[in-house]
């Protein structure tokens, strides 16, 4: 989608939402009021792929970003890496705004790494495993004397042992899980502080998924690596993440520690997502009507109201928030702190507690 | 790299040999390609060894060993020309210039086309627009006219011919390479390279170039054929280097000696056939290579 579209001029920046943020030290990587818009060719319609997001990733933390396809998760991840420029808002690394000069970006990319969705496509078919892993080292440090040791180290950390056996393999000779391990090794070789993983296991077998997720957890334990894991799989978020942010149509609608958000979802959207998980034990799976709306035509009021089961069932009407749902934007959630939700109905429930 | 280095290198070589074996097997399935390769090898060998069995002195205008326009005989298999030189010896000798010019001119134009194509495909936006408009401009210019103009303006030498052909033949390569670059750039490993911190040069050199190389190679063989024909054309039009013997030059001499009206076929036909044969062989090789490098065939490996 994004390749077809061009960036547009900045529009109104979203207002920062005030929420009691739990003091947790300075976040390592954060988004502040981040928006990314794409303009169709010939200026037809502006797609607000990311529409005002505050998100904090702290050191040593795994944050899961979940949501349906097309909700802007991947665009947000790419923007955090500087692969896409925000139309409004900022990306902050260690509290400093990300600079987009060639040299500054290169330095940044030494410290934050990307793991892509499709391990088959993310390795150059003409490079051996050794070349693929050593690529980052060569870019940043040129040819170093201990290159081979560091490549071997990264490969064995990523679970490819003994590493020498894999040096001269080509990607097409490896299995999907092995390829993803090579990609992870290529990221690890630079000893990054944070990893942005975009659907790291979506294209892998269920049996391999567990191994790769285990690997992410081990890396966090051993190296103190922070990770932002983009996924559409709530079960996976449940298994590996410390915190979770649920995204709908370019905005985070519910965020907080994973136990709180996923055990007791308060946003109707999160509730619906949870109810269709087989292991959630929900009485009645709640299938949302229709597709997510087109990001070029984001509905007014709460962006979820057109599909919201709470509003459709008339419960919101009884609680007296139906008008607010249709007309008032619930606002942007802050990046860190306790569980928060952008929903008029849920806010009412919390007040009544 | 101390202890494990030799084994790694040996392994790498073994893998390369295997890859070449695979390549050769696929190529050998194409009969026409094999024929082209054999004909080319013969032509190249002739060009290289010509000085061993042909006395250069006998090719000078004053050193012809035979009489004027002798028809083919036991001594002169393809007869003699106006100065008593053996036509066979001249045609064999002419392979040297034709092949040299063909290869060098193709190399110049392919290098130019590849660089321009990769830059246009990689950067997109206005640099691509500008480069592609220039390419289009060269594409619609009648290349023969441009080459004639260049060869006429610059001093007469083989180098001039190479430059004239190289400068006019690159647009097709640039177009093909740009298209291939666009398709390579859309693949995720380019984004991975960028996220690793790789700059434009890194992406173009390490990722795009190796992946457009098959197309470039096939394009080169096709262009050699074009360059040989173009060189002959320029020589035939009298724009070649008069001090060297080339196939186009022989044809030009034959025409000006009135070979057509006098029915001296042995002066005209052999150089013409030589041009056709070598150009055909290169085209056959190029087609066969394209078949081997076909992405769908490669993906299956």
TrEMBL record, chain A:
SMART domains noted in UniProt: AAA
Pfam families (UniProt xref): ABC_tran, oligo_HPY
Coiled coil: none
Keywords: ATP-binding, Nucleotide-binding, Transport
Molecular functions per Gene Ontology: ATP binding
ABC transporter domain location: 34-274
PROSITE patterns attached to this UniProt entry: ABC_TRANSPORTER_1, ABC_TRANSPORTER_2
Similarity comment: family membership: Belongs to the ABC transporter superfamily.
Name of the featured protein: ABC transporter ATP-binding protein
Source organism of this protein record: Nocardiopsis endophytica
From TrEMBL, chain B:
Name this polypeptide is given: ABC transporter permease
Domain ABC transmembrane type-1, residue spans: 95-286
Transmembrane portions of the chain: 34-54, 101-125, 137-154, 208-229, 264-289
Keywords: Cell membrane, Membrane, Transmembrane, Transmembrane helix, Transport
Membrane topology: Multi-pass membrane protein
Major location category of this protein: membrane
Similarity-based family: Belongs to the binding-protein-dependent transport system permease family.
CDD domains according to UniProt: TM_PBP2
Domain of life where this protein originates: Bacteria
Cell compartment(s), UniProt: Cell membrane
């Amino acid at each position: 989608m994004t390749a077809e579209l061009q960036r547009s001029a900045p529009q109104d920046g979203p207002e920062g939402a005030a929420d009691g943020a739990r003091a947790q030290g300075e976040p390592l990587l954060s988004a502040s009021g981040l928006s990314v818009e794409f303009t169709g060719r010939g200026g037809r319609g502006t797609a607000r792929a990311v529409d005002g997001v505050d998100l904090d990733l702290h050191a040593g933390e795994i944050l899961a970003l979940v949501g349906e396809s097309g909700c802007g998760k991947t665009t947000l991840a790419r923007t955090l890496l500087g692969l896409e420029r925000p139309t409004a808002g900022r990306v902050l690394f260690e509290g400093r705004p990300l600079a987009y000069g060639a040299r500054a970006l290169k330095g940044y990319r030494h410290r934050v790494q990307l793991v892509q969705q499709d391990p088959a496509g993310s390795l150059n078919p003409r490079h051996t495993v050794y070349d693929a892993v050593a690529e980052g080292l060569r870019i940043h440090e040129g040819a170093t004397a201990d290159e081979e040791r560091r490549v071997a180290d990264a490969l064995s950390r990523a679970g490819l042992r003994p590493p020498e056996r894999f040096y001269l393999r080509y990607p097409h000779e490896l299995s999907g899980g092995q390829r993803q391990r090579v990609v992870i090794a290529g990221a690890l070789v630079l000893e990054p502080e944070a990893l942005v993983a975009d659907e790291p296991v979506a294209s892998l077998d269920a049996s391999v998924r567990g191994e790769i997720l285990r690997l992410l957890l081990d890396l966090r334990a051993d190296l103190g690596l922070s990770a932002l894991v983009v996924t559409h799989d709530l079960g996976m978020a449940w298994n590996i993440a410390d915190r979770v942010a649920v995204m709908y149509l370019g905005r985070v609608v519910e965020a907080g520690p994973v136990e709180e958000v996923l055990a007791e979802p308060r946003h109707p959207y999160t509730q619906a997502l949870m109810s269709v998980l087989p292991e959630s034990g929900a009485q009645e799976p709640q299938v949302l009507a229709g597709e997510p709306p087109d990001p070029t035509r984001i509905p007014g009021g709460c962006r979820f109201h057109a599909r919201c089961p709470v509003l459709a069932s008339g419960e919101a009407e009884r609680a007296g928030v139906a008008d607010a749902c249709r007309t008032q934007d619930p606002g942007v959630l802050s990046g860190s702190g306790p569980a928060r939700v952008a929903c008029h109905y849920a806010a009412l429930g919390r007040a009544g507690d | 790299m101390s202890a494990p280095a030799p084994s790694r290198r040996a392994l790498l070589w073994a893998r390369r040999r295997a890859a070449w074996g695979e390549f050769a097997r696929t190529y050998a399935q194409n009969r026409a390609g094999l024929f082209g390769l054999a004909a080319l090898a013969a032509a190249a060998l002739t060009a290289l060894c010509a000085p061993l069995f042909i006395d250069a002195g006998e090719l000078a205008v004053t050193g012809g060993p035979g009489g004027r326009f002798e028809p083919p005989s036991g001594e002169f298999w393809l007869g003699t020309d106006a100065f008593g030189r053996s036509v066979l010896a001249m045609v064999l000798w002419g392979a040297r210039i034709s092949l040299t010019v063909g290869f060098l001119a193709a190399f110049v134009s392919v290098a130019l086309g590849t660089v321009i194509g990769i830059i246009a495909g990689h950067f997109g936006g206005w640099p691509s627009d500008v480069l592609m408009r220039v390419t289009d401009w060269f594409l619609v210019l009648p290349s023969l006219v441009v080459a004639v103009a260049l060869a006429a303006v610059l001093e007469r030498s083989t180098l001039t011919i190479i430059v004239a052909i190289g400068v006019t033949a690159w647009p097709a390569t640039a177009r093909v390479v740009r298209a291939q670059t666009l398709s390579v750039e859309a693949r995720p490993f380019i984004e991975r390279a960028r996220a690793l911190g790789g700059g434009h040069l890194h992406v173009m050199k390490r990722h795009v170039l190796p992946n457009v190389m098959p197309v470039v190679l096939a394009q080169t063989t096709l262009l050699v054929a074009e360059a040989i024909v173009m060189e002959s054309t320029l020589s035939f039009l009298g724009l070649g280097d008069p001090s060297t013997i080339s196939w186009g030059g022989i044809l030009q001499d034959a025409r000006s000696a009135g070979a057509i009206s006098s029915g001296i076929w042995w002066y005209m036909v052999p150089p013409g056939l030589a041009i056709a044969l070598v150009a055909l062989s290169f085209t056959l090789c190029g087609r066969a290579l394209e078949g081997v490098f076909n992405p769908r065939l490669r993906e299956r490996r």
